[in-house]
Every structure is written in C-alpha cells, then in structure tokens.
C-alpha cells in the first residue's frame, strides 16, 4: 500500500525500482530508466499517474493480474522498452514508442484502454493470447504493431499511416477498427483471422497470407487502397467494397469463400494463379469490374453486372459453375477461357462476348429482353445451351462456330456472319424466333428445327460469299419456314423436310444446290424470281407435299419425284 508520491526516480546502469502488492502506487512520480535501469510493477501495484521514460536499454515491466499502468504516460525510445506479463494491463495509460523503442504484451495481458503511439521504428507486440482490449493504437512513419501466438486485437482502434500492423500465428483482429492510410498496411499471416474487424484501406493496403482468413470482416478499399489474398488464404464471409480505384486481388490458390464483394466507380477485383471465387457474391456496378486470369475460376459464385459493370475471363480461366447476371452490364471470355458450366443471363442491354479461342463450354446462357451473346475471333459455343427469348440475340462472327451447342430461339434470334459456322449445333426456332445465315457463313452439319412461326434465312447477293446450308438437316413443321434469298444463297448438300405444314422458299436468284428436299403432309417448297433454280437438287413430294415454280424460276437439273398424292 505504499506510494512513491511525487518522486523523481532514475534507474541507471542496472539500477532498479520495484512496486509490489495491491495498493502500491507510483503516484505522480517522474521515473527514468536508462542504460539497463529498470522499474517493475507486480502483484496488483499500479503506475497510477506517473510519467515513465525508458531509453537506451531502460525497461519497465508489469506482471500479474490486477497490475496496471493506470493513467501513466510511458515513453520508450532508442531501445527503451515496456513489457506486460501474466494478466497485467495497460489501463488508460499513454504509451509512446519511437526510434527503436517498444512495448510488448505477453501471457494474457491486455492493452485495456491505453493510447499507444508507434512511430519512426517504434513498435508494439502482443504475444501468447494477449489482447489489445479497447486500446487506441497509432502506427506512423515506420511504426508498427504485431499480434502473435493467438493474440487478439479485441475492440481496439488501430491507425496505420505509413506504418504497419501484422497478425501472425493464428492471431485475430477481433472486433477492431483498422485504418490503413497513405501507405499504411495490415498483414494477416500464418492462419490468422480478421474476425469481425472493420478495415479501411485509403491509399493503404491489407494482405492475407499463409492460409489466413478475412473472417466476417468489413473491408473497404478506396483511392488506390487494396486488399490481397495470397498463399491459399480466403475471404471467409467478409464484406469487401472497392471504389475509386480501390482493388482486391486473389492469388496463389486463394479463395473468395462466401464473401460479398462490391466493385463500383473504378473499383476492381482480380483472380489469378488458380484462385477461386468460391461461393462469393460479387456485384459490379457502374465502372466496377472483376477479372479472372491464369487458370483461375469463378467457382460457384453469384456475379451480377449492372450498367457499365463488367466481368472478364482471361488466360484459360473458367466461369466454372458460377451464376452470372448481366443486367445492363457485360461478361467477356478471352484467351482460351471457358464459360464452364455457368448459368449466364443477359438482359436490359447486358451481354456476353467470347473471343480469342474462348469457349462457351457447357454453360446455360439465356438472352432475355435486349440481352445478347456474341462470338468473335475463333471462339466457339462448345456444348452450351443458349436460349434467345423475345428481343434476345446471339451473333457468330468471322472465325467462330456454334460447336455442338443447343440454341433455342424462343422469339429471339441467332445470326451467323461471314466466316462463321453452325458446325454440329442443334438450333430450334419457335414462337417467331429466327436464325439468319449471311454471306460467307454455313449451317455445316447442324440440325435446324423451325416451327410455330419460327424460321431460318440464308441470304447473300454475292456468289463469292455464299450463305449455304452445307450438309445440315433442316426440318420445317407447324408453320416453320426456311428461306434462301439472293444469288449467293444455296441449300448446298442439306437434307430439308417440310411437313405439317412447313415451307421452304427460294427467291431472288437463290438455288437448291445438291440438296435433298422432302415435302409431305402439306409441306411445300417454292421457287420464285429470275435466276432462282432447283439446280441439281433431289425433291420428293409425297402424301400432300408439293413444289411450285413461278414463271421466272427454273427446275435446273433437279430430280423431282411425286408419289402418294
């Protein structure tokens, strides 16, 4: 119960002052420890309102439950230090560490309500399950704080301005509020966890390494601020926002977990090095974007791109089994990337584009009202299922093909332009849906079904750029129509069936090539206009099927067989 009152105490060259037992207090003393000098508080004693300076190797220690720094002012400089042990706490003290001075919390000790400043090489370290309590910690100009050995930041408020904080050895940020500004940084290492922390990176950064996790943290990156996940780390269930040039990067097999990520106003998220979006929810708003590269994957994420928001897949990356909604926004696949088995919806001027040897894989793609899918530059529809609803569309451009895809035009449309091919696709045009082959395109070996007002058109006015049915099988039934129009339009070697009552029309100089045309049960083939010809086709009219030529068209060298009515 003794007190040092208002003493001036100097411990130098191994000199020592000890405060022991409950009620023992340093009062308002001025204490200086230097050159190996030391002050010790233990067994419930308190530094009270004292002022303590530790310098050039001087040291102050607090040990034992109930032992506290009180409301003291402690400064550690040029190798001076303060250490808390075995349940002691920093109380509401003010601690300053500079020029190599430091404070350590060990063995379940706590920073409690202290205000701690680390600058110019000053540092604070929490070890062995210790806690920052509700302290206010400032790291500036090279100052730093480290949490080790399952220690916890508690409810602390930590500011890093050109300073840093590190969480190591399964330590946790608890419910802390952490601000990284102007080059300030926070790092989570060795399976450490951000807990429920609130982290703000304003021209500062946060990094998760060595299988660490963002937990349930709320992280904001802005004005060039950034967050990086490395070395199989994961975003947990964090809420991450990237704005005004802020960014988040997933590298080295890292995973977005179940995080919610929002990118707006030049904010961005990048996945690379086989990283995975997990089950994350990713929202890309105006001028916000997400990109995948280097064999990375969208996993089973839910990705929404609204107006001017975008997602890009590069370098053999995959959309995997993600759900992607382009509601006014866009998704692009490039450089051998794949849509995998993703579910993709395009609407309200939203669109998906494939280019650079990319593939739609086995994706399920729906183009709704004013939604579109476009294939460019050697890309392919793979084995995707593409549905074009009313005012929805799919376009194949030079060097692209529909692969083995299934394309349903349910009131919507598909267009093949110069240099494109339907390959082996199954194409169904119903409910006024349509497919158009322009000059230089081919239906190849596709199966095309037209019914319920749906139709297919082959059109070209240039014999050097044929729109040809190739060796396709085309079925027109129940008011389905196929039209060949222009001197460059030809049925090639196709097999065409018109029934119940389907119709094929040749006009404006088109020709039936070497096609086999079968008309039955009310199905018809019609030739009209100058230069239109049945060419070398084989036409069979059976059981109510018919073929008609107007006065300007010709049967050419065709073979026409009429049987059973």
Automatic annotation (TrEMBL):
Q: Looking at the record, which segments are called Disordered?
A: 1-75, 307-401
Compositionally skewed regions (Polar residues) per UniProt: 307-316, 343-358, 366-400
Lineage, top-rank taxon, reads: Bacteria
Q: Which organism is it from?
A: Candidimonas nitroreducens
Where is composition skewed (Low complexity) in this entry? 16-28, 56-70
Residue ranges crossing the lipid bilayer per the database entry: none
Q: What is this protein called?
A: Uncharacterized protein
């Amino acid at each position: 119960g003794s007190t040092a009152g208002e003493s001036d105490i100097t411990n130098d060259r191994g000199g020592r002052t000890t405060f022991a037992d409950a009620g023992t207090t340093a009062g308002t003393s001025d204490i200086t420890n230097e050159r190996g000098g030391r002050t010790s508080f233990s067994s419930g004693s308190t530094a009270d309102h004292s002022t303590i300076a530790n310098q050039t190797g001087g040291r102050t220690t607090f040990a034992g439950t109930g032992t506290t720094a009180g409301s003291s002012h402690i400064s550690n400089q040029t190798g001076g230090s303060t250490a808390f042990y075995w349940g002691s706490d920093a109380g509401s003290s003010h601690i300053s560490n500079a020029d190599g001075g430091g404070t350590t919390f060990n063995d379940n000790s706590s920073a409690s309500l202290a205000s701690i400043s680390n600058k110019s090489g000053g540092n604070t370290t929490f070890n062995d399950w210790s806690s920052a309590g509700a302290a206010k910690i400032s790291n500036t100009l090279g100052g730093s704080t480290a949490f080790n050995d399952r220690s916890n930041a508690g409810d602390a408020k930590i500011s890093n301005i050109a300073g840093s904080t590190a969480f190591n050895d399964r330590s946790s940020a608890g419910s802390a509020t952490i601000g990284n500004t102007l080059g300030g940084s926070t790092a989570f290492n060795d399976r450490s966890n951000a807990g429920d922390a609130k982290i703000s990176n304003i021209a500062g950064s946060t990094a998760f390494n060595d299988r660490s996790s963002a937990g349930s943290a709320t992280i904001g990156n802005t004005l060039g601020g950034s967050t990086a996940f490395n070395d199989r780390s994961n975003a947990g269930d964090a809420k991450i926002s990237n704005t005004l040039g802020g960014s988040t990067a997933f590298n080295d097999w890292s995973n977005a977990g179940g995080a919610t990520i929002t990118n707006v106003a030049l904010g961005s998220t990048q996945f690379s090095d086989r990283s995975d979006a997990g089950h994350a929810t990713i929202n890309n708003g105006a001028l916000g974007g997400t990109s995948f590269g280097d064999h990375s994957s969208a996993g089973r994420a839910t990705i929404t791109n609204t107006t001017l928001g975008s997602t890009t897949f590069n370098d053999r990356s995959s959309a995997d089994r993600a759900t992607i909604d382009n509601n006014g926004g866009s998704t692009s696949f490039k450089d051998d990337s794949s849509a995998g088995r993703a579910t993709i919806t395009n609407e309200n001027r939203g669109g998906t584009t494939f280019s650079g040897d990319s593939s739609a894989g086995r994706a399920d793609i729906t183009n709704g009202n004013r939604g579109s899918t476009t294939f460019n530059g050697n890309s392919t529809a793979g084995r995707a299922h593409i549905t074009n609803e009313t005012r929805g569309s799919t376009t194949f451009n030079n060097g692209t093909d529909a692969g083995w895809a299934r394309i349903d035009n349910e009131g919507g449309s598909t267009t093949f332009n110069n240099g494109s091919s339907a390959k082996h696709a199954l194409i169904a045009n119903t409910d006024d849906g349509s497919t158009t082959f322009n000059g230089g395109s081919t239906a190849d070996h596709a199966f095309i079904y037209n019914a319920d007002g749906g139709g297919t058109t082959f059109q070209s006015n240039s014999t050097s750029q044929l729109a040809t049915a190739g060796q396709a099988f085309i079925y027109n039934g129940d008011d389905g129509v196929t039209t060949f129009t222009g001197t460059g339009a030809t049925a090639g070697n196709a097999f065409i069936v018109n029934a119940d009552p389907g119709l094929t029309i040749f006009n404006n100089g088109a020709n039936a090539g070497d096609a086999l045309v079968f008309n039955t049960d009310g199905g018809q083939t019609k030739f009209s206009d100058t230069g239109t010809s049945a060419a070398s086709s084989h036409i069979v009219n059976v059981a109510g099927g018919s073929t008609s030529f107007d006065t300007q068209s010709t049967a050419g060298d065709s073979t026409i067989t009429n049987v059973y009515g």
